[in-house]
Automatic annotation (TrEMBL):
MF terms (GO), sorted A to Z: hydrolase activity
The protein's name: Carbon-nitrogen family hydrolase
Domain of life: Bacteria
Pfam annotation, one family: CN_hydrolase
Keywords annotated in UniProt: Hydrolase
Protein family (similarity comment): Belongs to the carbon-nitrogen hydrolase superfamily. NIT1/NIT2 family.
Keyword Transport included in the entry's annotation: no
């Protein structure tokens, strides 16, 4: 399975249309990969809370249309990071806004969405402005040569909650994807928790973070690919970067067979 993680850098001086055009070009350049991943909320701004309502869009909005075209032109499965989705509230006290990940097929079809379950902000930010998702999502990603790889979806702050990843594991996930807007001051947690999720669930972890500074927040970068044994296979620094790597997904099966810790689980 050949993957590309696009660690995007941006600041407040770049308009959303300009950033979208730049991202589309970056995705097109990844033709030949099976899966391409973008960071969380790269278009509206991961910490640009004041802009979210004005930059919210439906699942068929301009960002989604641009990403669908890019996936189709590159012939890749594209995890488009996430958008601020707006729609009809799902409860009487709902806001009708979600932090929603979008996954497109190589033909440009929207094949999966995931609304972020764990909202960051301790009562402010996401909890004050957005609704929480309540569904775990695993999507089959086709790979060159035939076959599919089951990929579990999560977003940023979700990484701190291991029970979500147990659910994804129990639904058959072999790979976890974590797009993020994780700040620099806690980046050690970002890298540590990614390895922890890989080790405890014996899954590959693809972590795609944001670089640059926006809304007064310096972003942490350090996107990484971790194998099912916890070994870091590829890692970025603080600057914009594209991590491209071929992952031997059969190694996950071999590791689970050689060290069958999951079979000793007693609680569920």
């Amino acid at each position: 399975m050949k993957v590309a993680l696009i660690q995007l850098a941006y600041g407040d001086d770049e308009t959303v249309p300009a950033r979208t055009e730049r991202v589309v070009d970056l995705v097109r350049a990844q033709a030949g990969h099976d899966l391409v991943v973008l960071p969380e909320l790269w278009a509206p701004g991961g910490f640009s809370y004041r802009e979210w309502a004005g930059r919210a869009e439906a699942l068929d909005g301009p960002t989604a249309r641009a990403l669908a075209a890019a996936a189709r032109e590159a012939g890749v499965t594209l995890h488009g990071g996430s958008i601020v989705e707006h729609g009809a509230p799902s409860s009487p006290d709902g806001r009708g806004l979600w932090n929603t990940s979008l996954v497109f097929s190589p033909t440009g079809d929207l094949v999966a969405t995931y609304r972020k379950i764990h909202r960051f902000g301790f009562g402010e930010g996401e909890p004050a402005l957005m609704d929480a998702g309540d569904e775990t999502v695993v999507v089959d990603v086709p790979v060159a040569g035939g076959g599919v790889v089951p990929v579990g979806l999560s977003t940023c702050y979700d990484l701190r909650f291991p029970e979500l990843y147990r659910r994804l594991l129990d639904r058959g996930a072999e790979v976890f994807v974590v797009p993020a807007a994780w700040p620099a001051r806690r980046v050690e947690h970002w890298t540590l928790l990614g390895r922890a999720r890989a080790v405890e669930d014996q899954c590959v972890v693809l972590q795609c973070n944001t670089s640059g500074t926006h809304a007064g927040h310096e972003m942490g970068g350090h996107s990484q690919v971790v194998d099912a044994s916890g070994k870091v296979l590829a890692a970025a620094g603080l600057d914009e970067d594209v991590l491209s790597i071929e992952i031997d997904t059969r190694a996950t099966t071999r590791w689970r067979e050689d060290f069958p810790v999951l079979s000793d689980r007693r609680l569920s």
